[in-house]
Amino acid sequence: MEKHKITAKRITIYILGLFLYSFGIAITAKAALGISPISTFPYALSFILPFSFGICTFFLTVTYIVIQIVLLKKEFEKRQYLQIVVGILFSSFVDFSMFLLIYLNPISYVSKLVFLFLGSIIVALGITLSVISNVVIPPAEGAIKAIATRLNKKFGNVKILFDSTIVLLAIVVSLIFLGRLEGFKEGTIISIFVTGFATKGFMKLLGGKIKKICER
User: Fold this and answer.
1) pLDDT at 211 (0 to 100)
2) Domain ranges in the chain?
3) What is the CA radius of gyration of the chain?
4) What is the pTM of this model?
């Protein structure tokens, strides 16, 4: 990660990005058509364990950080321990967002699709703000980067395998403990494309402006 001075503006934009990311995930969860791959496993666990979606997300966050520490050892930057704080914030935002949307329960398939698209776009905006503010690498991406470094593989290829593993775990635990799929549905595939294209669009439209604000 590029080193630079961490300012109040960067932190503010980063935290805003985290909130929008979590709020978007909550909207897609309420759409009940499937959520983004990285959230499928903790979401499925929230139906099995006596813990909220946010707390289950934090459990996974800690796992991602441990993976980095084990694989990178001395190469793990002390600054990246802030990922724990990020994990606490993000997990809290997830539960808070789910609370805010407690009465959002779309019935028709069309309305569910609308909220899925809306949530995916908000996730994309959150990702854009978090990435450009460049404060701390997100825990999941940090784990993927650590694995790619140790295996000498491309980040993109490892991410595909990593996300696929998370989704597979969600499918397995859902079918074994619930007898149905939770988290992974057709909306998961849709969200991948919508979030991907929207993120690219936001990066082009807002990237330069946000970067200038951060550097002032």
Assistant:
1) 82
2) 8-215
3) 17
4) 0.88
